[in-house]
Amino acid sequence: MANVDQKTSTLFSIWVEDVSTAYDVLEQDITAQIRRMRTLGLSDGEIYNRLSASLDGGMDMFQTFKGTIGRSNDTLVNMISQVESNEAIREQAEKWRWELDPTVEEKNHCDDCLDNSASGEKTFDEWEEMGLPGYGNTQCGKYCRCTLTPIQ
Q1: Would you put residue 113 in left (φ > 0), alpha (ψ -120 to 50) or beta?
Q2: Cα 30 from chain centroid?
Q3: Which of 46, 52, 75, 133 has its CA 20 to 30 A from that of 119?
Q4: Buried b or exposed e, range 52-88, using 16+ CB within 10 angstroms
Q5: For the whole model, what pTM was predicted?
Q6: pLDDT of 2 over the 70 cut
């Protein structure tokens, strides 16, 4: 379980960095927007009202920020689920095969996943050393939805 906790902690740390970066971008965007509005001669009250309206309406930079946070949250949940799932199945078989995500056309898979799916059977530890699906070790990175299938 410590291995899962360590991986989850690492993924959470990456998520914190992503969210922090998104916040920094929002802060820079708001600062630039305020500067532009001041240049146009708007009062602090008018600036506040416009920013509040944008926030309430979920428009502009606020919508971008919200989308970024939502995608980061989804990615974190997916990656932690993948870690938990992999740890739960680890002992089910001696050999495993990389299976491409069946919801994606083969031509749209990254070269790494295509190579991995053609590389045959490996132990779970061998796959883990190469990089498990969804861990960010493939060209499709954290968006990989491929799986390992046990060979019975």
Answers
A1: alpha
A2: 25
A3: 75
A4: eebbeeeebbbeebeebbeebeebbebbbebbeebee
A5: 0.64
A6: no
